[in-house]
Write a structure and sequence with these properties.
Elements: H1 6-19, E1 26-28, E2 40-47, E3 53-59, E4 76-81, E5 84-90, E6 99-102, H2 105-108, E7 113-119, E8 125-131, E9 138-145, H3 147-150, E10 158-166, E11 174-181, E12 184-185, E13 194-197, E14 204-213, E15 222-230, H4 232-245, E16 260-262, E17 269-275, E18 277-283
Parallel strand pairs: 2-17
Antiparallel strand pairs: 1-16, 2-3, 3-6, 4-5, 4-7, 5-6, 7-8, 9-10, 10-14, 11-12, 11-13, 11-15, 15-18
């Protein structure tokens, strides 16, 4: 069985990607001077699971601030694709400021190209494009004790969450994994998530994609693994994000965010990604040592 310990090799991978980022993406090099409010920050990760989708807009905060930037309100936010146009609207004050929602687009997403268009109240217009790609079916999810725990490297037991799936034909696909426990997302930060390339995957793989601490889960809990299709550029975004911000979790507030890729135009930061999604759940029982 091929069970790579993904989280423990991501720093090495990130170093590799820093040396070989593709020419089709843009590097973001931020001045360490005060950047409060200078950049539009976009969080736009849409999925085809039928749920209401959201896009978040904020402004960059000072390098020395530890909080996120101010919300961007009253913007016009549109996603176009498949000869359709979907407007995302604020629900403030019924929701947090800076969040824009659409309840129709998820059911309409197919494997094609999509464009995000954002017009802010200062008449600036920003663009990004993303292609929805297919995602494999997750056959099953299992949990094993991490080898480092078996050798008492940690104070608590760490479990590997292993995805079992048949990769799509050909090479060049990229995926992103999230973890839920009892429907609560346990990987909210970009540096918590697990990006994967299929370049070294077998036709059928059993891959340790994420880890979980024994203190965060109890027997009988429902563990759900989510797998998303992403672009090569988005894969590199998450790898470099992890390398640069694993300790702080916020590249626009508390840690130097140089050279983090973006697919946004006009100097905006963040990433626009449209993904197919697959999920598989299991009832957690601690594996035997």
């Amino acid at each position: 069985m091929k069970a790579l310990k993904n989280k423990y090799i991501q720093i090495v991978l990130a170093l590799t990607f820093l040396a070989g980022i593709s020419a089709c993406e843009k590097d973001v090099v931020l001045d360490l001077a005060d950047i409060e409010g200078k950049y539009l920050i976009v969080e736009a990760n849409l999925i085809d699971d039928g749920s209401r989708q959201w896009i978040r807009l904020t402004r960059s905060s000072s390098y020395y601030e530890v909080t996120t930037g101010n919300a961007v309100q009253q913007a016009r936010v549109i996603v176009e694709g498949n000869d359709q146009s979907f407007e995302f609207t604020e629900l403030y004050p019924d929701s947090l400021p800076g969040y824009y929602f659409n309840s129709q687009i998820s059911d309409a997403l197919i494997e094609t190209n999509y464009e995000l268009i954002i017009e802010t109240t200062d008449n600036n217009i920003y663009f990004a494009q993303s292609v929805l790609r297919p995602v494999p079916v997750i056959d099953s999810v299992t949990v094993e004790i991490n080898p480092f725990s078996e050798f008492n490297f940690f104070d608590t037991t760490i479990y590997d969450v292993i995805a079992h799936f048949a990769d799509l034909p050909g090479k060049g696909d990229h995926y992103l994994f999230n973890l839920y426990i009892n429907r609560k997302l346990k990987t909210p930060r970009p540096s918590d998530k697990a990006p994967m390339s299929d370049i070294n995957l077998d036709e059928y793989s059993s891959y340790a994609v994420l880890t979980i601490n024994e203190n965060d889960i109890t027997p009988g809990d429902t563990l759900t693994l989510e797998m998303r299709s992403i672009s090569k550029e988005n894969f590199e975004f998450y790898n470099i994000f992890f390398f640069q911000t694993d300790l702080s979790g916020n590249p626009f507030a508390g840690a130097p965010p140089a050279n983090i890729p973006t697919n946004m135009s006009e100097g905006a930061r963040g990433f626009f990604q449209v993904s197919a999604v697959a999920r598989k759940s299991m009832i957690f029982e601690p594996p035997q040592q």
